[in-house]
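Our consortium's second objective concerns turning raw sequence data into structural hypotheses that experimental partners can test. To show how far this objective has progressed, the report includes one record in full. It was chosen at random from the queue rather than selected for favorable results. The single chain below, 222 residues long, was entered without modification.
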Amino acid sequence: MKSYPTCIGIVIMLFLLTGCGIPSVHPLYKPDDLIIEPELTGKWKNKSGKTIYRVVNLQDITNDKAMRDSLDMGDDFSKDFEEMGLSNIYLIFDNDVLVTDKIDDDTEAYLAGLLELDNNYYLDLYKYPNLQDNFSYPVHIFVKVELEDNQITMHEFREQWIKDLIKNRQIRIKHEESFDNFLLTASSDELQNFVLKYGNNPDAFRSDTETFIKIDADEAAE
């Protein structure tokens, strides 16, 4: 497999539930920016083997009745997403779905939008806690990622680095701060301009990374 950067929505829960990453009101992508990388579909675990997720593209769900049936999704499941222009979005399910292959009201689910900017690939991550209801409060997290030999490496932006740029008036990007909390309120266009300017700057990213490895169904069931 060719080595090149890409991205996947595997670690969205890690970022959203541990408070890592930089939250944004708006997504990094616009609907027309979304792309598909078929190799991302499947089951993935982190190096410790303690965290496993299932990744499915919406088009796979739309075109595969057997998959919809196995996940207990109706034939109209994709309609709302497609009406929003999100036909290329990925969905990520937590470990419960890996065990039961069924979705219920307690299933943790996430949306993951893949896009390319300046020859780098990014994933916009969005929590979607109940597949039967509307979106939850729209907080997005975006990360830079690389994929090589069925291994995904996630590069997270450093919040303090962005705060320092703002404090020193080196950048202007819409945001809100409250005590130690930091929230970007910039538009998708503004976010993309920011990423285009700093996406190749190593200072923009944390030194620690998160890596996931693709696994087969038998290993996921262990």
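The partners drew two points from this record. The two ends are 27 Å apart (CA to CA). Confidence is low (pLDDT under 50) at residues 1-19, 130-136. Both points have been shared with the crystallography group to help prioritize constructs.
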